[in-house]
Amino acid sequence: MRSIAKPMLWLSLLFAAATPALAQGSTGASDNDIDIGGDRITIGAGLAVTPSYIGSDSTIALPTLAIQGQVSGLSFNSQGTAFYLDAIPDSGKPGWKLQLGPLAALRLDRNSMIDDSAVAALGKRRKALELGGWAGIQRTGVVTSPYDTLSFGLSYQHDVSGAHRSAIVSPSIDYATPLSHTAYASISLSADHVGRGFGRYYYDVDAAGSAASGLPAYTGADKAGWKDWNASMLLAHSLTGNLTHGLGVFVTGGYGRLLGAYRRSPIVDMAGSPNQWSGAVGLAYSF
């Protein structure tokens, strides 16, 4: 999920961060004409290609949606099926900014559209509702202009629905920059450290599951550890000349690699692949 979600986050963030540079280049307005800290909403929609489950060697196509906004200085955004709120008001000025707020996520892995008969025979996994929080620090004005951004973040979320009943901790680093007055790019690196219950629920195979699927029994993921690392990128281009108000097009690409005991699970090592590729293309509208 993260390899798609992270670029979709940057799709929304770029409309906020690139506002003064893009508006000045396309309309001739000065920076003072743009209120970076003002209210705004961006909605992106498109078609994504993603593994049928985390660890699968086959992909499925499905619609994807992202939303980002800022109201009274408070920012919010979605990442796939997760929603984040930054509870620290943003002044919109270049420099350092602390980020802190709650998050909620709905995990759908191995709940439907499992494109492998052996893994499907293991049975569906329940949808997991995960609640938690995130914190970070962001620098605006780093290398290429006063408007590029470098962000360091850390999120924590715990299943409260009784599915895997454990936590996920995810550090991340993101960089985004305008390429011209109509183009924008971003890159992102992240990793996921999961609790014991997560590995047991999604990657172990018990005796009954082995008999039903033909996969060997496996208990090696019944421990906490680093599950994967992910890299993603986004390219976006304005179609109307002003990303603050109007239409744009975007394309994303992502790669993830499963690690350690999770990579050695039969649903990955035998039925799937540790290499996880994803991408998306779509349109975004800002108002």
UniProtKB/TrEMBL annotation:
Cleaved signal peptide residues: 1-23
Key word Membrane present in the record? Answer: yes
Which InterPro entries does this one have?
MipA (IPR010583)
Say which family it is in: Belongs to the MipA/OmpV family.
Record protein name field: MipA/OmpV family protein
This protein's record includes keyword Membrane: yes
Q: Which domain of life is it from?
A: Bacteria
Location of this chain's protein in the cell: Cell outer membrane
UniProt keywords, alphabetically: Cell outer membrane, Membrane, Signal
Q: Name one Pfam family in it.
A: MipA
The regions listed as transmembrane in this protein's record are none
